[in-house]
Amino acid sequence: MRFSTDSTTINCPYCGEDFELVIDTGEEEQHYIEDCYVCCQPIHLSVWLAGEEPLVVARHENEC
Q1: Rounded to whole angstroms, how far apart are CA atoms 21 and 41?
Q2: CB-based contacts of 38: which residues, under 8 Å, 6+ apart?
Q3: Can you say how many angstroms the Cα of residue 45 is from the centroid of all Cα atoms in its chain?
Q4: Rounded to the nearest 5°, which phi and psi values hold at 36?
Q5: I need a labelling partner for 51 at 20 to 30 A (CA). Which of 6, 7, 8, 42 fits?
Q6: Could you tell me the residue ranges of all domains in the chain?
């Protein structure tokens, strides 16, 4: 079994800092929570792998 990843840069919806997000490319659609590496707030992530670049939506807890 091969494990494949991609990466993209996202903005934290809490503190606004940019950080690199590593994405598992084994699933075309993903929804999960990951803490910001800067402010440690929970970011709700939705990831779609439909084209060349992954589409990532990072949302604040109150936007879900």
Answers
A1: 15
A2: 12, 15, 17, 19
A3: 5
A4: -65, 140
A5: 42
A6: 5-63
| 56, burial (CB in 10 Å: exposed 0-12, middle 13-18, buried 19+) | middle
pLDDT per residue over 3-57, tens digit each? Answer: 788 899 999 999 999 999 999 988 899 999 999 989 999 999 999 998 778 899 9
Q: Which of 64, 61, 24 is nearest to 40 (CA)?
A: 61
What is the DSSP pairing of strand 29-35 with strand 42-48? antiparallel
